[in-house]
Structure formats: C-alpha cells, structure tokens
Amino acid sequence: MTNRPRNALKNWRDAIDWLVIAGYKKQPKTSSGAVLKATLHHSDSILSAAISPDGQLLATGSHDSTVKVWSLHSGELLRTICGHSTAVLLVAFSPASKTLLTRSRAGTVKLWNLQNGEQMKRLADVHRHESVAVSPDWQILAIGTTCGTVKLQHLNSGQLLQVLKGYQGDDISAIALSPNGKMLIASGLNATSGFCRATVTLWELPGGEVRRTFGSENYVAITPDSQILVCHSNKTIALWNLETGELLHSVQTGIRITSAAAISPDGKYFAVGCFDGTVRLWNLRGQLLHALEGHSGPVSAVAIGQLGDTLVSGSDNGTVKLWQLRI
Fold this sequence. Notes:
- The two termini are 35 Å apart.
- This protein has one helix at residues 12-22; strands spanning 34-41, 46-51, 57-62, 67-71, 77-81, 88-93, 99-104, 108-113, 119-125, 131-134, 140-144, 150-154, 160-164, 171-177, 183-190, 196-197, 201-204, 209-213, 219-222, 228-233, 236-241, 247-252, 257-263, 269-274, 279-283, 288-292, 299-304, 310-315, 319-325.
- The protein is mainly beta.
C-alpha cells in the first residue's frame, strides 16, 4: 500500500480504507440497514459514478483522468479507460449497457465501446465550466452554457436541435432531463449578483418555453415518474411538485452536502453525499432513512442500481464503496 500516491494518513478512517483494500479487514455491517460489500480504489479523487441499466457494471471517473469499469457483483476491475487528459466529471451508460459516455474537465465528451474499451466518437467540446447531461433515452445531449442558455443536440449526429433561453442566471452548473422527455431543468449561479445561486428554471419540451421557476438550489434531479424535482445545496434539500410548482418539503440537513446525489429507480428514496464522509438517504416525504458511514473524506459521487438495493459511493480519497441496502 505504500506506493499509493495518497499514502499519508490524514484521518484514522484512512487506515481502515487501506486495510479493507488490502483484504485484512472484514466488511462490516452498519447500523443503518446496509452492508458494505467491497471497497475499490482509484489513485485520486472520485468525481463520477454510474451503474449500468442491466445491473452488471459500475463505471467510475476520477481526478486521475481515468475511467474504471468494474463488475458490480464481484468488484473485479474489468477495464481501465485512459482516453482523457484531465479529470472525468461524468460517466453515463447507454440503455443497452454497451456504450459509455464520459465528459472530462477539459470539456471533451466521448463515447466508448465497453466490449473493447475503444473510443467510438468524440461528441462535443465544451467549455470547462459548462454542464452536460444526456437524456434517459440517449437521444439528446444537453449542454448548459456559461451565458445562461441550454443547447440541445442530437447525441449521435451532433446536430443542434434547439437553444433554450430565459434562464435567470449566467452559469448553469447542473441540468436534469425528465424521464418522460417533456421537461428540462437547469440551476447554477448568477454572476451579476455576486455569484449567488440562480433561480431553478424549467423548460417545457419540445416547445422550449419556460414553464415555471423554483427555488435557488445549485443541483437538481427528477424522479423516475417525472413528478417531483429534488434540489439541494449546502445544507438544504427541497422537493417540488413539477406539475403544480408547489414546494412539498424543505429539509434542513444540519450537515453540508456535496454535489453528489442520486434518486432510486423506483422513486422511493434519494441519496446525497456529505462532507462528513457519510451518504444520507431520505424518502420523498423528506424523512431521513439512513446514514451510511465509512468514508474518511467528502463523498463526491453516488449511484444507485436499478433494483434500488445497491448503492455506490465515491470519495475524494480515491475509495469507492459498494453497499447492499436494506431499505
């Protein structure tokens, strides 16, 4: 373990992580109704994670510029993709689980063949501060720009389909496309007001009209039934009814939360990463269900499997933990 780039102990939990990776420590059962199945690792911070729709694979993107593809069941490393020169901020599986989309801090968006690890296509080059999301059906690539617009382009052809305007801010830091394909939501910052959080904006698709606005949280996600918007930033989580615009629940977490968040495919709960090294799970009524402890640093990536019983969390110390949940 001494040849790891991050080989200095900054926290007592680092020693636990190292022992787990080396195989000297049994995976503990937590008091939160979850079992820690495995601990995997990159050589630097984990920035993104995704579980394949078929439930077989896990992909993790890191500050070490690599993407690693693992067996979700065994934790075995299947492939390392080294096609980016900077940190990998986004990983996303195609619906058939055969293709992987990645986005780097330098702004390159690429498609990869998971069978051989080869690059299939370079989809786009975006500004390093622009946000990127792909629609659930993998037809649209959405790019939130630094001038407050959202560009929609066809994923495969690269054809520009639409430019959405009317956002009440400048820098779009997060985008969410609804599973039913009828809405796009963006959030971010407003430079003209001292980089305060901008108003969350919802566009109706395909028309492109601004339908309504919500609060001012930085990060957004939409439930699988396209009914509820989950927003979060700092120590606040807000749940909104997308149809009526009603604020359903506002949660003061008491702990700073990171940008990492995921909603379970069955829509029963959502998970957020926290700066204290925990992953916290809430139901859609705003009630805290569990707090998963185990990371020694901020949790910077979260993903949930299709059945809702597997959760993956990644930390800034390079560890990736696989949890078996008992919700």
